[in-house]
Amino acid sequence: MIRTLRKAGIAAFVASGIILAAACPARAQTASADDTARFLAGMPPSSASPLAPLTQDPAWQKHARYFNSAFGNLDKNQFAKIRAWSSAKLTAPSPVLFYMFSGPDFLYANAFFPNATTYVMAGLEPVGPIPDLMRLPRGSVAEGLRHIERSLSTILTLSFFKTHDMRMTLGASRVSGALPLLYVFLARTGNAIQDVSLIKLDAQGIPQPENTPSAPSMRNAAHGVKIVFAAADGRVRTLYYFGTNIANDGFKVSGFEKFCDQLGTGDAFVKSASYLLHSPNFSDVRNFLLGHTAQVLQDDTSIPVSYFAPDKWQLRPFGRYTGPIAVFARNYQPRLTQLFQKGRAESLNFGLGYQWRVSSSNLLLASRIEPQAINQPGAGSDSESIASKGPDVPPDSAEQAATTPAAGAKKTTSKNGTKNQKLRMAVRRPAPFYFPFFFGR
Fold it and tell me: Is 441 a member of any domain?
Protein backbone atom coordinates (compact mmCIF):
# COMPACT_ATOMS: atom_id res chain seq x y z
CA MET A 1 0.00 0.00 0.00
CA ILE A 2 2.80 2.40 0.97
CA ARG A 3 4.72 1.50 -2.19
CA THR A 4 1.61 2.21 -4.28
CA LEU A 5 1.09 5.61 -2.69
CA ARG A 6 4.77 6.46 -3.14
CA LYS A 7 4.60 5.60 -6.85
CA ALA A 8 1.44 7.65 -7.22
CA GLY A 9 3.07 10.64 -5.52
CA ILE A 10 6.13 10.43 -7.76
CA ALA A 11 3.93 10.20 -10.84
CA ALA A 12 1.94 13.26 -9.76
CA PHE A 13 5.13 15.23 -9.11
CA VAL A 14 6.52 14.35 -12.55
CA ALA A 15 3.21 15.20 -14.21
CA SER A 16 3.06 18.61 -12.51
CA GLY A 17 6.61 19.33 -13.64
CA ILE A 18 5.69 18.48 -17.22
CA ILE A 19 2.67 20.78 -17.06
CA LEU A 20 4.77 23.66 -15.71
CA ALA A 21 7.41 23.15 -18.39
CA ALA A 22 4.73 23.12 -21.07
CA ALA A 23 3.16 26.26 -19.68
CA CYS A 24 6.39 28.30 -19.94
CA PRO A 25 8.90 26.31 -22.05
CA ALA A 26 10.84 29.38 -23.17
CA ARG A 27 11.27 31.01 -19.79
CA ALA A 28 14.24 28.80 -18.90
CA GLN A 29 16.07 29.97 -22.02
CA THR A 30 17.92 33.16 -22.83
CA ALA A 31 17.45 34.93 -26.15
CA SER A 32 20.50 36.11 -28.04
CA ALA A 33 21.27 39.81 -28.20
CA ASP A 34 20.53 39.85 -31.91
CA ASP A 35 17.16 38.16 -31.49
CA THR A 36 16.35 40.54 -28.65
CA ALA A 37 17.24 43.52 -30.83
CA ARG A 38 15.09 42.27 -33.68
CA PHE A 39 12.17 41.61 -31.35
CA LEU A 40 12.37 45.10 -29.82
CA ALA A 41 12.65 46.58 -33.33
CA GLY A 42 9.44 44.86 -34.43
CA MET A 43 11.32 42.39 -36.63
CA PRO A 44 10.90 38.60 -36.38
CA PRO A 45 13.66 36.89 -34.39
CA SER A 46 15.10 33.60 -35.62
CA SER A 47 12.62 30.74 -35.73
CA ALA A 48 14.49 28.87 -32.99
CA SER A 49 14.54 31.85 -30.65
CA PRO A 50 12.61 31.58 -27.39
CA LEU A 51 11.17 34.98 -28.32
CA ALA A 52 9.51 33.60 -31.45
CA PRO A 53 6.27 32.56 -29.66
CA LEU A 54 5.94 36.09 -28.25
CA THR A 55 5.57 37.48 -31.77
CA GLN A 56 2.06 36.02 -31.76
CA ASP A 57 1.08 38.52 -29.09
CA PRO A 58 -1.22 41.21 -30.59
CA ALA A 59 0.77 43.87 -28.70
CA TRP A 60 4.00 42.88 -30.48
CA GLN A 61 2.26 42.66 -33.85
CA LYS A 62 0.88 46.17 -33.38
CA HIS A 63 4.37 47.34 -32.40
CA ALA A 64 5.86 45.70 -35.51
CA ARG A 65 3.32 47.37 -37.81
CA TYR A 66 4.05 50.76 -36.26
CA PHE A 67 7.83 50.42 -36.64
CA ASN A 68 7.56 48.96 -40.14
CA SER A 69 5.63 52.03 -41.21
CA ALA A 70 7.73 54.56 -39.28
CA PHE A 71 11.12 53.24 -40.35
CA GLY A 72 9.94 52.56 -43.88
CA ASN A 73 8.81 56.15 -44.34
CA LEU A 74 11.94 57.47 -42.63
CA ASP A 75 14.23 55.50 -44.89
CA LYS A 76 12.40 56.59 -48.02
CA ASN A 77 12.04 60.26 -47.16
CA GLN A 78 15.18 60.86 -45.09
CA PHE A 79 17.90 58.23 -44.94
CA ALA A 80 18.00 57.33 -48.61
CA LYS A 81 18.77 61.00 -49.25
CA ILE A 82 21.35 61.16 -46.44
CA ARG A 83 23.14 58.05 -47.70
CA ALA A 84 23.33 59.53 -51.21
CA TRP A 85 24.60 62.83 -49.81
CA SER A 86 27.18 61.08 -47.64
CA SER A 87 28.45 58.99 -50.53
CA ALA A 88 28.95 62.11 -52.64
CA LYS A 89 30.33 64.51 -50.01
CA LEU A 90 32.13 62.40 -47.38
CA THR A 91 34.54 60.77 -49.79
CA ALA A 92 37.42 60.09 -47.36
CA PRO A 93 35.87 58.93 -44.08
CA SER A 94 38.01 57.81 -41.16
CA PRO A 95 37.50 54.38 -39.58
CA VAL A 96 36.72 56.01 -36.20
CA LEU A 97 33.70 58.24 -35.60
CA PHE A 98 33.33 60.41 -32.48
CA TYR A 99 29.69 61.35 -31.93
CA MET A 100 29.48 63.47 -28.78
CA PHE A 101 26.13 64.46 -27.26
CA SER A 102 24.65 61.62 -29.30
CA GLY A 103 22.43 59.88 -26.82
CA PRO A 104 21.60 56.48 -28.32
CA ASP A 105 21.32 57.94 -31.84
CA PHE A 106 23.15 55.29 -33.86
CA LEU A 107 20.57 55.87 -36.59
CA TYR A 108 22.07 59.10 -37.94
CA ALA A 109 25.64 58.07 -37.19
CA ASN A 110 25.19 55.04 -39.42
CA ALA A 111 23.40 57.00 -42.15
CA PHE A 112 26.13 59.64 -42.47
CA PHE A 113 29.11 57.39 -41.68
CA PRO A 114 28.21 53.86 -42.80
CA ASN A 115 31.84 52.88 -43.38
CA ALA A 116 33.14 53.59 -39.88
CA THR A 117 34.45 50.52 -38.10
CA THR A 118 34.47 52.04 -34.60
CA TYR A 119 31.66 54.27 -33.37
CA VAL A 120 32.19 56.20 -30.12
CA MET A 121 29.02 57.78 -28.75
CA ALA A 122 28.36 59.62 -25.51
CA GLY A 123 25.38 61.13 -23.74
CA LEU A 124 23.93 61.54 -20.27
CA GLU A 125 21.42 58.73 -20.71
CA PRO A 126 22.56 55.68 -18.68
CA VAL A 127 23.21 52.46 -20.57
CA GLY A 128 20.88 50.36 -18.45
CA PRO A 129 21.03 46.59 -18.05
CA ILE A 130 21.39 44.18 -20.94
CA PRO A 131 17.78 43.39 -21.89
CA ASP A 132 16.69 39.87 -20.93
CA LEU A 133 13.08 39.74 -22.06
CA MET A 134 12.63 36.10 -21.08
CA ARG A 135 12.84 37.03 -17.42
CA LEU A 136 10.06 39.59 -17.65
CA PRO A 137 6.34 39.01 -17.17
CA ARG A 138 4.44 39.17 -20.45
CA GLY A 139 2.75 42.40 -19.46
CA SER A 140 6.11 44.04 -18.81
CA VAL A 141 7.31 43.18 -22.31
CA ALA A 142 4.31 44.88 -23.93
CA GLU A 143 4.76 47.88 -21.65
CA GLY A 144 8.43 48.06 -22.60
CA LEU A 145 7.56 48.11 -26.30
CA ARG A 146 5.19 51.02 -25.78
CA HIS A 147 7.85 52.99 -23.89
CA ILE A 148 10.38 52.38 -26.66
CA GLU A 149 7.89 53.78 -29.17
CA ARG A 150 7.43 56.90 -27.06
CA SER A 151 11.19 57.32 -26.56
CA LEU A 152 11.79 57.25 -30.31
CA SER A 153 8.86 59.40 -31.38
CA THR A 154 10.77 62.66 -31.91
CA ILE A 155 13.88 61.21 -33.53
CA LEU A 156 11.68 59.36 -36.02
CA THR A 157 9.89 62.59 -36.93
CA LEU A 158 12.15 65.54 -36.05
CA SER A 159 15.61 63.87 -36.26
CA PHE A 160 16.60 64.38 -32.60
CA PHE A 161 15.75 63.20 -29.12
CA LYS A 162 14.03 65.44 -26.62
CA THR A 163 16.19 64.33 -23.76
CA HIS A 164 13.87 65.21 -20.92
CA ASP A 165 11.02 63.26 -22.49
CA MET A 166 13.29 60.33 -23.28
CA ARG A 167 14.57 60.12 -19.71
CA MET A 168 11.03 60.00 -18.42
CA THR A 169 10.09 57.12 -20.72
CA LEU A 170 13.37 55.18 -20.48
CA GLY A 171 13.10 54.86 -16.73
CA ALA A 172 9.39 54.06 -16.67
CA SER A 173 9.53 50.39 -17.66
CA ARG A 174 11.61 47.28 -17.02
CA VAL A 175 13.14 47.59 -20.49
CA SER A 176 15.19 50.58 -19.42
CA GLY A 177 18.20 52.64 -20.41
CA ALA A 178 19.73 53.59 -23.74
CA LEU A 179 20.71 50.03 -24.68
CA PRO A 180 17.26 48.91 -25.92
CA LEU A 181 17.17 51.93 -28.26
CA LEU A 182 20.62 51.08 -29.59
CA TYR A 183 19.33 47.54 -30.18
CA VAL A 184 16.41 48.89 -32.20
CA PHE A 185 18.61 51.10 -34.37
CA LEU A 186 21.17 48.38 -34.98
CA ALA A 187 18.49 45.93 -36.07
CA ARG A 188 16.63 48.43 -38.22
CA THR A 189 19.83 49.42 -40.04
CA GLY A 190 20.48 45.83 -41.10
CA ASN A 191 23.15 44.94 -38.57
CA ALA A 192 23.52 41.65 -36.70
CA ILE A 193 24.70 41.88 -33.09
CA GLN A 194 27.43 39.40 -32.20
CA ASP A 195 28.41 40.38 -28.66
CA VAL A 196 27.34 42.85 -25.97
CA SER A 197 29.28 43.65 -22.80
CA LEU A 198 28.84 46.28 -20.11
CA ILE A 199 32.06 48.15 -19.40
CA LYS A 200 33.57 50.98 -17.41
CA LEU A 201 36.82 52.85 -17.86
CA ASP A 202 39.82 52.73 -15.57
CA ALA A 203 42.18 55.63 -14.87
CA GLN A 204 44.06 54.92 -18.11
CA GLY A 205 40.90 54.96 -20.19
CA ILE A 206 41.00 51.21 -20.75
CA PRO A 207 37.63 49.39 -20.75
CA GLN A 208 37.10 46.95 -17.91
CA PRO A 209 34.15 44.65 -17.21
CA GLU A 210 31.38 46.52 -15.42
CA ASN A 211 31.62 44.27 -12.36
CA THR A 212 35.35 44.95 -11.87
CA PRO A 213 36.01 46.90 -8.64
CA SER A 214 36.98 50.50 -9.36
CA ALA A 215 39.99 52.25 -7.90
CA PRO A 216 39.14 54.82 -5.21
CA SER A 217 40.26 57.58 -7.57
CA MET A 218 37.71 56.49 -10.21
CA ARG A 219 34.48 57.27 -8.44
CA ASN A 220 33.26 59.06 -11.57
CA ALA A 221 34.36 56.45 -14.09
CA ALA A 222 32.57 56.43 -17.43
CA HIS A 223 30.16 53.51 -17.67
CA GLY A 224 29.22 52.18 -21.06
CA VAL A 225 28.55 49.29 -23.37
CA LYS A 226 30.59 47.67 -26.11
CA ILE A 227 28.59 46.15 -28.95
CA VAL A 228 30.26 44.08 -31.64
CA PHE A 229 28.11 43.73 -34.74
CA ALA A 230 28.30 42.71 -38.37
CA ALA A 231 26.94 44.96 -41.07
CA ALA A 232 25.17 43.81 -44.21
CA ASP A 233 28.52 43.68 -46.00
CA GLY A 234 29.78 41.15 -43.45
CA ARG A 235 32.41 43.47 -41.95
CA VAL A 236 32.64 43.37 -38.17
CA ARG A 237 32.31 46.75 -36.44
CA THR A 238 32.30 48.01 -32.86
CA LEU A 239 30.00 50.50 -31.17
CA TYR A 240 30.89 52.07 -27.83
CA TYR A 241 28.24 54.06 -26.01
CA PHE A 242 29.04 55.79 -22.72
CA GLY A 243 26.46 57.31 -20.43
CA THR A 244 28.77 59.90 -18.95
CA ASN A 245 29.27 63.58 -18.26
CA ILE A 246 31.55 65.14 -20.89
CA ALA A 247 31.60 68.65 -19.44
CA ASN A 248 34.96 69.86 -18.14
CA ASP A 249 34.28 68.35 -14.72
CA GLY A 250 33.75 64.90 -16.24
CA PHE A 251 35.46 64.48 -19.61
CA LYS A 252 38.94 63.84 -18.20
CA VAL A 253 38.34 62.44 -14.72
CA SER A 254 36.00 59.74 -16.07
CA GLY A 255 38.74 58.23 -18.24
CA PHE A 256 36.74 59.06 -21.35
CA GLU A 257 39.28 61.49 -22.80
CA LYS A 258 42.08 58.92 -22.53
CA PHE A 259 39.87 56.26 -24.06
CA CYS A 260 39.14 58.47 -27.07
CA ASP A 261 42.74 59.62 -27.32
CA GLN A 262 43.93 56.03 -27.70
CA LEU A 263 41.81 55.66 -30.82
CA GLY A 264 43.88 58.30 -32.61
CA THR A 265 42.47 60.36 -35.45
CA GLY A 266 38.81 60.07 -36.40
CA ASP A 267 35.89 62.00 -37.80
CA ALA A 268 33.38 63.87 -35.66
CA PHE A 269 29.64 64.26 -36.01
CA VAL A 270 27.59 66.63 -33.83
CA LYS A 271 24.00 67.77 -34.19
CA SER A 272 21.23 69.08 -31.94
CA ALA A 273 23.77 69.58 -29.15
CA SER A 274 22.10 72.47 -27.28
CA TYR A 275 25.05 74.75 -28.21
CA LEU A 276 27.04 73.26 -25.34
CA LEU A 277 30.25 73.40 -27.33
CA HIS A 278 29.86 77.20 -27.36
CA SER A 279 30.38 77.14 -23.61
CA PRO A 280 33.67 77.37 -21.68
CA ASN A 281 32.31 74.54 -19.54
CA PHE A 282 32.76 72.19 -22.51
CA SER A 283 36.12 73.47 -23.74
CA ASP A 284 37.89 70.16 -23.02
CA VAL A 285 35.74 68.10 -25.36
CA ARG A 286 35.74 70.92 -27.91
CA ASN A 287 39.53 71.01 -27.83
CA PHE A 288 39.67 67.26 -28.18
CA LEU A 289 37.51 67.27 -31.28
CA LEU A 290 39.51 70.06 -32.88
CA GLY A 291 42.75 68.24 -32.13
CA HIS A 292 41.82 64.67 -33.01
CA THR A 293 39.68 64.80 -36.12
CA ALA A 294 40.29 64.86 -39.86
CA GLN A 295 36.82 66.20 -40.58
CA VAL A 296 33.91 67.47 -38.55
CA LEU A 297 30.33 67.27 -39.78
CA GLN A 298 28.04 69.41 -37.67
CA ASP A 299 25.08 71.73 -37.53
CA ASP A 300 25.21 75.18 -35.95
CA THR A 301 24.67 73.79 -32.42
CA SER A 302 28.19 72.36 -32.40
CA ILE A 303 31.64 74.02 -32.43
CA PRO A 304 31.36 77.75 -33.23
CA VAL A 305 32.68 78.41 -36.71
CA SER A 306 35.18 80.88 -35.30
CA TYR A 307 37.20 78.09 -33.71
CA PHE A 308 38.16 76.62 -37.08
CA ALA A 309 41.49 78.30 -37.83
CA PRO A 310 41.65 79.27 -41.53
CA ASP A 311 45.14 77.84 -42.02
CA LYS A 312 44.06 74.43 -40.72
CA TRP A 313 40.49 73.93 -41.86
CA GLN A 314 38.54 74.19 -45.07
CA LEU A 315 34.87 74.93 -44.48
CA ARG A 316 32.07 73.78 -46.75
CA PRO A 317 28.52 74.94 -45.89
CA PHE A 318 25.34 73.13 -46.87
CA GLY A 319 21.72 74.19 -46.61
CA ARG A 320 20.62 77.45 -45.04
CA TYR A 321 21.61 79.06 -41.77
CA THR A 322 18.64 80.96 -40.35
CA GLY A 323 19.93 81.30 -36.79
CA PRO A 324 18.96 79.29 -33.69
CA ILE A 325 15.46 78.50 -32.59
CA ALA A 326 13.96 80.95 -30.11
CA VAL A 327 15.10 79.24 -26.91
CA PHE A 328 18.72 79.44 -28.09
CA ALA A 329 18.50 82.83 -29.82
CA ARG A 330 21.53 84.18 -27.98
CA ASN A 331 23.75 81.62 -29.69
CA TYR A 332 23.45 83.32 -33.06
CA GLN A 333 26.75 83.32 -34.99
CA PRO A 334 27.41 86.33 -37.26
CA ARG A 335 30.45 84.60 -38.74
CA LEU A 336 28.32 81.65 -39.71
CA THR A 337 25.92 83.99 -41.47
CA GLN A 338 28.87 85.38 -43.41
CA LEU A 339 30.01 81.89 -44.33
CA PHE A 340 26.62 80.87 -45.70
CA GLN A 341 26.24 84.15 -47.56
CA LYS A 342 29.73 84.24 -49.06
CA GLY A 343 30.60 80.57 -49.13
CA ARG A 344 28.02 79.66 -51.76
CA ALA A 345 26.31 77.08 -49.59
CA GLU A 346 25.30 73.92 -51.42
CA SER A 347 21.73 72.74 -51.13
CA LEU A 348 20.38 70.02 -48.86
CA ASN A 349 17.42 67.86 -49.82
CA PHE A 350 16.80 66.63 -46.28
CA GLY A 351 16.26 68.33 -42.95
CA LEU A 352 17.70 67.64 -39.51
CA GLY A 353 18.37 69.22 -36.14
CA TYR A 354 16.30 71.81 -34.34
CA GLN A 355 15.65 73.58 -37.65
CA TRP A 356 14.40 70.28 -39.01
CA ARG A 357 12.59 71.57 -42.08
CA VAL A 358 14.51 71.18 -45.33
CA SER A 359 14.28 74.89 -46.08
CA SER A 360 16.00 75.90 -42.83
CA SER A 361 18.43 73.06 -42.01
CA ASN A 362 22.17 73.50 -42.14
CA LEU A 363 25.33 71.44 -42.10
CA LEU A 364 28.97 72.44 -42.05
CA LEU A 365 31.72 70.10 -43.23
CA ALA A 366 35.09 71.15 -41.81
CA SER A 367 38.02 69.28 -43.39
CA ARG A 368 41.50 69.55 -41.97
CA ILE A 369 44.05 70.88 -44.43
CA GLU A 370 47.02 69.27 -42.67
CA PRO A 371 45.79 65.90 -41.34
CA GLN A 372 49.31 64.68 -40.62
CA ALA A 373 49.41 67.06 -37.64
CA ILE A 374 46.92 64.92 -35.70
CA ASN A 375 47.91 61.37 -36.50
CA GLN A 376 49.44 60.75 -33.07
CA PRO A 377 47.41 60.28 -29.88
CA GLY A 378 47.76 63.20 -27.54
CA ALA A 379 47.76 65.77 -30.31
CA GLY A 380 47.18 69.37 -29.34
CA SER A 381 44.04 71.32 -30.07
CA ASP A 382 43.50 74.13 -32.51
CA SER A 383 41.54 76.03 -29.91
CA GLU A 384 43.98 75.84 -27.01
CA SER A 385 45.26 79.30 -27.80
CA ILE A 386 41.79 80.79 -27.94
CA ALA A 387 39.81 78.85 -25.33
CA SER A 388 40.65 81.39 -22.66
CA LYS A 389 38.98 84.13 -24.70
CA GLY A 390 35.59 82.57 -24.11
CA PRO A 391 32.95 81.17 -26.49
CA ASP A 392 32.98 82.36 -30.09
CA VAL A 393 35.82 84.83 -29.43
CA PRO A 394 38.79 83.48 -31.40
CA PRO A 395 41.75 85.48 -32.74
CA ASP A 396 41.00 88.04 -35.44
CA SER A 397 42.60 85.72 -38.01
CA ALA A 398 39.64 83.37 -37.64
CA GLU A 399 37.36 86.04 -39.02
CA GLN A 400 38.17 84.92 -42.55
CA ALA A 401 38.01 81.17 -41.86
CA ALA A 402 34.69 80.90 -43.63
CA THR A 403 36.02 81.93 -47.01
CA THR A 404 39.69 80.97 -46.93
CA PRO A 405 40.48 78.30 -49.54
CA ALA A 406 42.70 75.32 -48.86
CA ALA A 407 45.65 76.67 -50.79
CA GLY A 408 46.65 79.59 -52.98
CA ALA A 409 44.50 82.05 -51.09
CA LYS A 410 44.80 85.73 -51.87
CA LYS A 411 45.40 88.12 -49.05
CA THR A 412 42.40 89.98 -47.73
CA THR A 413 42.44 93.58 -48.93
CA SER A 414 41.93 96.50 -46.64
CA LYS A 415 38.65 97.14 -48.43
CA ASN A 416 37.38 93.70 -47.50
CA GLY A 417 38.65 94.16 -43.97
CA THR A 418 36.70 97.41 -43.62
CA LYS A 419 33.59 95.72 -45.01
CA ASN A 420 33.89 92.87 -42.50
CA GLN A 421 34.37 95.33 -39.66
CA LYS A 422 31.20 97.16 -40.67
CA LEU A 423 29.31 93.88 -40.80
CA ARG A 424 30.48 92.99 -37.31
CA MET A 425 29.32 96.35 -36.02
CA ALA A 426 25.97 96.05 -37.79
CA VAL A 427 25.19 92.65 -36.32
CA ARG A 428 25.71 92.78 -32.59
CA ARG A 429 26.03 89.37 -31.01
CA PRO A 430 24.24 88.97 -27.70
CA ALA A 431 25.90 87.05 -24.91
CA PRO A 432 25.91 83.29 -25.50
CA PHE A 433 23.23 81.29 -23.75
CA TYR A 434 23.64 77.74 -22.47
CA PHE A 435 20.57 75.68 -21.78
CA PRO A 436 20.70 73.93 -18.38
CA PHE A 437 20.15 70.48 -19.88
CA PHE A 438 20.48 68.71 -23.20
CA PHE A 439 17.43 69.91 -25.10
CA GLY A 440 17.81 67.20 -27.71
CA ARG A 441 20.15 65.55 -30.11
Answer: no
CA–CA separation, 149 vs 162, rounded Å? 13
Q: Could you give the 3-state DSSP secondary structure of residue 52?
A: helix
What are the beta bridge partners of residue 119?
Answer: 97, 239
Sequential pLDDT tens for the chain (441 residues): 444 434 444 444 333 333 333 334 444 488 999 999 999 999 999 999 999 999 999 999 999 999 999 999 999 989 999 999 999 999 999 999 999 999 999 999 999 999 999 999 999 999 999 999 998 886 788 888 988 888 887 766 554 445 555 555 555 457 789 999 999 999 999 999 999 999 999 999 999 999 988 888 788 999 999 999 999 889 999 999 999 999 999 999 999 999 999 999 999 999 999 999 999 999 999 999 999 999 999 999 999 999 999 999 999 999 999 999 999 999 999 999 999 998 789 999 999 988 878 888 999 999 999 755 554 554 444 443 333 334 444 433 333 333 333 333 333 334 444 444 333 333 333 333 333 333 344
| Alpha-carbon gap, residue 2 to 8, rounded angstroms | 10
On whether residue 433 sits in a domain, the answer given is no
- 3-class SS of residue 209: strand
Query: Strand 96-99's sheet: what is its strand order?
Result: 207-209, 192-201, 223-230, 236-243, 118-123, 96-99, 266-270, 293-298, 362-368, 313-319
* Domain contains 209: yes
Tell me whether residue 19 is in a domain: no
- Whether the CB-CB separation of 256 and 244 falls below 8 Å is answered with yes
In terms of residue numbers, what domain contains 51?
26-426
Cβ-contact 339, 298 below 8 angstroms: no
- Number of domains forming the structure of the chain: 1
